[in-house]
Specification:
Elements (H helix, E strand, L loop, with lengths): L1 H18 L22 E9 L12 E6 L5 E6 L13 E7 L4 E6 L2 E6 L5 E6 L8 E2 L5 E5 L5 E6 L5 E6 L4 E6 L5 E6 L5 E5 L4 E6 L6 E6 L5 E6 L4 E6 L5 E6 L18 E3 L5 E6 L4 E6 L6 E7 L7 E3 L5 E4 L3 E4 L5 E4 L13 E7 L2 E5 L18
Organism: Nibrella saemangeumensis
InterPro entries: Haem_d1_sf, Host-pathogen_enzymatic-act, WD40/YVTN_repeat-like_dom_sf
Protein name: DNA-binding beta-propeller fold protein YncE
């Protein structure tokens, strides 16, 4: 009898398994790890701040124009900003940078620095500083901002979260362009009234070295990723000069061949804008009078001129997408680096031309920024290490 009962139980169990709905699933483990919802896809955007060519509102109005890098750089949205003069008119935008630590974008104008939350797109604070504000640069950890006064005697070091002043560095060089080194140990300070590039130690906020002299006062510049070389524009030169960041010596002077210097509309400088491709194999140089970008082979030293690209207006700045695929001159032309072809141009929601010398790439996962690009065209090859910089 027991054998018969056991057999009947086995048969009933088998029938129950066969008739159980296929959608009945038992999951084990932490419920938070079992969600079928996929992680947000990372989106790449180009944030273009205007007026980024003097105070010309015709090149994009007043605010931030956002473009979708992965969708042929098409317009996405417009974000209003602060940065007004006392009479209520928009002030010139002088610089832009990103801090992932504070989740904010920072925009400097002639008079002030503003901090805008990248998720809410609301103004967190806006502060005016003694001497005005020029092109800023933020530390790799996003906590410190080096802020040049507007072509005056000093740089101000501020806390990125609060905007509070930490220190002041007096160079008497006409403070202008600033690059925070990729390793976070040094900041490079170029003034409009000096042929020397000052190098500041970020631990002490003091100048510990000078590089130069170069042949004339320094304008835009860039550095390689290992922080051993600096490439500078200087007044009066259609071309660039190269300096050694380790020894402090000027190494080379490179002049563009086949083009005349000519008159420029802005900056009073034949070449105002210089950048390295992220792999550092090429150097791209702005030519204001001829509406050109010249491309140099940077695998040799000094770099050798290879080709030229005509753009739609006078270029006054240039940088690259983080992956090195696109070149971004201030004219709003989007250049395919490999083919040298202009593949599109930046236009706002009304199909007006957008141009700016202040733009930066930002990657978002959902509404959270997870990566910030480089506005200065800094090389990204960091294998070489320098034991001592003093």
């Amino acid at each position: 009898m027991n054998v018969i009962k056991t057999g009947l139980l086995l048969i009933c169990g088998a029938l129950l398994l066969l008739t159980t709905p296929a959608w009945v699933v038992v999951k084990q483990g932490n419920p938070s790890t079992l969600s079928d919802k996929p992680a947000p896809r990372v989106k790449r955007y180009l944030y273009v701040v205007t007026p980024g060519v003097r105070n010309y509102l015709g090149y994009g109005g007043h605010g931030i124009q956002v473009f979708d890098i992965d969708n042929n750089h098409r317009f996405v949205k417009f974000i209003p900003t602060g940065g007004l003069r006392k009479d209520g008119t928009p002030s010139n935008v002088k610089g832009v940078d990103i801090s992932l630590a504070t989740n904010c974008i920072y925009i400097s104008t002639l008079e002030a620095l503003q901090c805008i939350d990248l998720t809410t797109e609301k103004l967190v604070w806006e502060k005016q500083y003694e001497g005005g504000v020029d092109r800023i640069s933020i530390s790799p950890d996003g906590k410190i901002i080096y802020m040049p006064s507007l072509e005056k005697e000093f740089w101000t070091v501020v806390d990125a979260k609060t905007g509070d002043i930490i220190s002041k560095i007096v160079t008497n060089s006409g403070a202008h362009n600033t690059i925070y080194g990729p390793d976070g140990n040094f900041v490079y300070l170029a003034g409009l009234k000096s042929t020397y590039l000052n190098v500041a130690d970020t631990k002490t906020h003091t100048v510990t070295k000078q590089v130069g002299p170069f042949s004339a006062d320094i304008r835009p510049f860039t550095i390689n990723g290992s922080q051993t070389l600096v490439y500078v524009n200087v007044n009066g030169l259609l071309g660039f000069e190269v300096g050694d960041l380790v020894t402090g010596k000027k190494l080379h002077r490179v002049q563009v061949q086949g083009f005349n210097i000519g008159e420029v509309k802005r900056h009073s400088c034949p070449s105002h804008g210089i950048a390295l491709t992220p792999d550092e194999r090429e150097l791209w140089l702005c030519d204001g009078a001829n509406n050109r970008v010249h491309v140099f082979d940077n695998t040799v030293m000094p770099p050798v001129q290879r080709t030229t690209i005509q753009v739609r207006d006078m270029p006054g700045w240039i940088t690259f997408s983080a992956d090195g695929k696109y070149a971004y001159p201030s004219t709003g032309d989007i250049i395919d680096v490999k083919t040298r072809k202009i593949i599109t141009t930046l236009e706002d929601q009304h199909y007006n031309s957008v141009q700016s010398e202040k733009m930066v790439e930002i990657h978002f996962s959902g509404k959270k920024p997870v990566f910030a690009g480089d506005q200065f065209g800094i090389g990204q090859v960091k294998q070489k290490q320098v034991a001592s910089r003093n």
